[in-house]
Structures
1.
Amino acid sequence: MKKIIVNGGKRLEGEIRVGGSKNAALPIIFACFLINGVSEIDNLPHIGDVQIALDILRSFGGRVWRCEGKTYIDTTRLSYRAPDPKLASKIRASTYLLGGCLSRFGRCPIPNFGGCNFSPRPIDMHIDACLSLGARLCDGAVVCDRLRGADISFRLPSVGATVNAILLAASAEGETHISGCAREPHIDSLIDFLLSCGADIKREDRELCIVGRELHGGSISIIGDMIEAGSYLVLSLMSGGGITVNNCPTDHMQSFLDGLCDLGATYSVSGSSISAELLYPKYSSVTTSPYPGFPTDLQPIIAPLMAFGAGGEITDTVWRDRFGYLASLSHFGIVSDTRSGRAKIYPSTIQSGRSCAPDLRGGMACLITALSATGESEISDLDIILRGYEDLENKLRTLGADIKIIDT
Ligand code: EPU
């Protein structure tokens, strides 16, 4: 494990380029289970979660190589083996093994899926999707002779269950109708990738119609990561407003940018670049909801900005209990109060402190706070943040941050 020592409180300035989206890249890697051939992926982020997903694919015989900045994945010769529980328990996206393995091999054990532990993370809708298409549960695994198209109706728009249902339906016999789907931009990316592989998928808002097909290798360029972009914009607002964030998926960020304005910031967009400035901090409320609403993954990030300004209130309708990170932020002087699924963040005197990263986004919230607090701070378990933020050390140094990373 690594830790980061931050000598904070400096004005940060310069330009950084946002990398490929973690949550777009991961479903696409697992979609390769369905494919007979070689796929080409551009802008695949070099982050911990992606490395683990590629290791899982390699453990089934997948070949992965890079050439001129692109990643190539050959899944022609995959063979079945039980997923390594150690690897599966490291990332949440290992749930996509259900769609990938069941489609390719007709079976998938249900391991202990990992990822951030900020809330209970049930998989009932994933399992229901498998069962609807003809699989059955047997000795802690889902198994099937063949998958057959069916109607699936989700009671809420789960990203992960939508991904698995798409993977299963894309290789099932016949037609599948899925309603109540998630419509995050990374779902569209998965569909675009599968279309390039020969899939037959039609989408209208939250409805999908998929006819199963044999799939060949395809190609995709991973969209920019809106959560990484939002994180650097908040860092900019808390450290003098001098950062320009390039390669932003600006079309996907409207609700977040509106949230910044409600807190008294202003922003300007030029092509795919965004810069922002805090004018007159204002108290405001943020309520997260599935896309196109304010993203839950940016609510831990915006909390320090509220404390830095005039305070605010957060309600998370996606993960109602996602407030454990506030205990870590309290080590940096941030005062908050959580009651009945709602967090009140008080205007606070932000100070240097020490904490471990509680989870990916909560850890980034601590790091942003430490960078804006005068004096020396320390954040341990940095690897948790590196799971989702590409080239963090270089990007922060480019902006003038005084940081030191130590292997512990
Ligand atoms: N849910 C169920 N049953 C299920 C599945 C989900 O009740 O079978 C509920 C969850 O409890 C939650 C809601 O549905 O209340 C939404 O969960 P969803 O399935 O959409 O989340 P996920 O697929 O597990 C992905 C991202 C998360 C992000 C959420 C919501 C990945 C690998 N993870 O998780 O990202 O918070 O969607 O947008 O794509 C992160 O990047 O830091 C992160 C946590």
Note: Residues 22-23, 26, 92-93, 116, 121-126, 156, 158-161, 182, 296-297, 318-319, 360-361, 388 surround EPU (CB under 6 Å).
2.
Amino acid sequence: MIEIFPDAEALMRGAAELFVEQAQRALPVRGRFCVALSGGSTPKRAYELLAGEPYCSRIDWSRVHLFWGDERCVPPKDARSNYGMTRAALLDHVPIPAGNVHRVRGELRPADAAEEYEKILNQFFGSGPTQFDLAFLGLGADGHTASLFPAAPVLHERVRRAAEVHVAELDMWRVTLTAPVLNAAAVVAFLVSGSDKSDVLRQVIFGPREPERLPAQLVQPTAGETRWLVDRAAASRLPASFRASGSKL
Ligand code: 6PG
């Protein structure tokens, strides 16, 4: 489903509302709400909104478990840290138990950080599917999502739940969830904002399937659903027929 919001702030409110809705669906059934958070700049405002009303008090934070779809291999206090961004925007402002925050230790050697995160995922999800109730994802202008970058060997990883990735174009190491984990999620929600994403958004959704070039196309949940929450600027190159049909399809 694609939902077009009038602007970035409305998109962020939509993302916060989706988080609350999915939490209220999962908690009665599963007794916990497991989320893989996205990094980058787009979701920060959504996390800030979740730390306030009317969202925060609608969530039983004691039963929320937060993971990250990917992390940069830097210490938490580094401005590039996805965990550091989330701590400042959300974690420092909500009553989530420390033990429910399952971060990638970006300060470790990449391979050690990935190995430790894999162990955390294995301990938490056991041998069954790594089923997140919700996975927020972003979309890079090059078609990447999480740290699944074009032509990267990790695109073909089907066994490991998490892996270290060297991103040559950024000269940076990262740890990422792998495609099978993202595809085991109950709901995957891409948050896409800004005109700089308009071309890649159209290619990913409406273009030919080329996951090596557009890794976001690898995300096709096996049993779950994919939602695209986009603002009007990002949607500006979607087929006119689609845009004219209204904001939800
Ligand atoms: C990261 C993200 C990455 C991000 C996209 C979009 O760690 O950077 O996981 O996949 O979602 O690069 O980034 P922006 O939201 O900053 O445009």
Note: Residues 149 and 215 are 6 Å apart (CA to CA).
